[in-house]
Description:
This protein is an alpha+beta fold and about 190 residues long. The chain is about 30% helix and about 35% strand. The chain has one domain (about 5-175): Aminopeptidase, CATH 3.40.630.
Amino acid sequence: xxxxxxxxxxxxxxxxxxxxxxxxxxxxxxxxxxxxxxxxxxxxxxxxxxxxxxxxxxxxxxxxxxxxxxxxxxxxxxxxxxxxxxxxxxxxxxxxxxxxxxxxxxxxxxxxxxxxxxxxxxxxxxxxxxxxxxxxxxxxxxxxxxxxxxxxxxxxxxxxxxxxxxxxxxxxxxxxxxxxxxxxxxx
Length: 187
Ligand SMILES: CC(C)(COP(=O)(O)OP(=O)(O)OC[C@H]1O[C@@H](n2cnc3c(N)ncnc32)[C@H](O)[C@@H]1OP(=O)(O)O)[C@@H](O)C(=O)NCCC(=O)NCCS
């Protein structure tokens, strides 16, 4: 698959290239990103270079579609659909993201995620998108709830990262859901 560009009111989402490595490496110095995602820590330039290269390969094979989101040319987030599985009933994938620390709290994540979710349901024909987070990641859970995900439970030690295992909050969004936010018992 060729990488796709998505545009929203304030953002341009495109697959990152080599010229984007420095900004990615800088964003990934924030400890909240390795705390809550599988991103390595310390995060070196070679990690950023490897990530950008892998994103190109994932797009080509259609296994994961990852974008960086830019506001006026400045990197504000990375977001994507991971572990895409095709199926005759419609496929499924997992939504993953981080927002660069200085850009947080501006609604960029929700804005970018809506575009990615719309694209995944419409263009990939997904039936379901999964969300999971380390227990206690309230900002991410609030974002997922706002996007219309329904909370589906806690899975013990279900999440792995370079730092070990964590209990995980799980949620899902179906193509047929109306996306009106619903109550989450953990929030
Ligand atoms: C989770 C993350 C992407 C949210 O980014 P953001 O820029 O704050 O997102 P938005 O501005 O779109 O806001 C999303 C929601 O989070 C809430 N939020 C933001 N910061 C918060 C905080 N510190 N505490 C509680 N809620 C917070 C916002 O109020 C909003 O909720 P609402 O829709 O109910 O009002 C960001 O905190 C981040 O990158 N964290 C580190 C990496 C990470 O956790 N990735 C997700 C792994 S599952």
